[in-house]
Amino acid sequence: MSFLVVEGLVAGYGEARVLHGVDLSVAEGEICAILGPNGAGKTTLLRALSGMVRARGVIRLGGTALTGRPPDAVARLGVAHVPEGRGTFMPLTVEENLRLGAFVRRRGREVEDDLDRVCTYFPPLRDRLGQVAGSLSGGEQQMLALGRALMLRPRVLLLDEPSLGLAPLVTRELFRIVQAINQEERTTVVVVEQNAHLALGVARQAHVLETGRIVLSGTAERIRADEQVAQSYLGYRV
């Protein structure tokens, strides 16, 4: 059964249209990879799903319509967005950043428990709760961005280029943690990622986006075996 459903999605900025009728679906508890060249509309797709850009068409999460809702309302329905560039509040401490992720929640005890839960996934953050976020390394800032999203207790986690600017070892560790979150908490994940090898290694299904349209969809195995994808994104011929 499809959990996240997108049908005929059109979105853009002002008069500039970026997405031209995107259709896709993601089952609950799956990891879905979105691949495509720069300028294909991948970031705009995630922004449309989280309510950050105006969109037309159908976006449903568990049967609830998201289209036209503002970002805070979408977040209250369980959609957490980790944007490209992380979106960390640099002057605030690590703990303050994490607590901001729980802004739609009111149960104090659960929030305290989730602070501990996030630090279990990201041990380096535990020793830096009082540290200003701007002083963290790039990898630690990405951990903080993911941890802040987890504080929402999301049903869907949207990740935009989580490996951007990170060393390969740090990137592999982040993707390992994303897999653990998906498996242990059954959180649905939609990840936009230039490193197609990594994305297809953790995803169950994938979609290739070009010039604002989905041009190929299928299981990660099928997408990996496609000759065009292999040449364009994976660096080899099938």
Give an overview of the whole structure.
Strand 9 and strand 10 (213-219) form a beta hairpin. Strands 6-7-8-3-9-10 form a six-stranded mixed sheet, with helices on both faces. It is globular. It has ten helices and ten strands. The chain has helices spanning 42-49, 71-76, 94-100, 108-121, 123-126, 138-150, 168-185, 196-202, 220-225, 227-234; strands at 2-13, 16-27, 31-35, 55-61, 64-65, 79-82, 156-160, 188-192, 205-210, 213-219. Helix 3 packs parallel to helix 6 (138-150).
Number of strands: 10
Largest sheet: 6 strands, mixed
Strand percentage, roughly?
25-35%
Return the structural class.
Answer: alpha/beta
Distance between the termini: 32 Å
Mean pLDDT: 93
Series of H and E elements: EEEHEEHEHHHHEHEHEEHH
Gyration radius over CA: 17 Å
How many helices? The count is 10
Contiguous runs where pLDDT drops below 50 for at least 5 residues: none
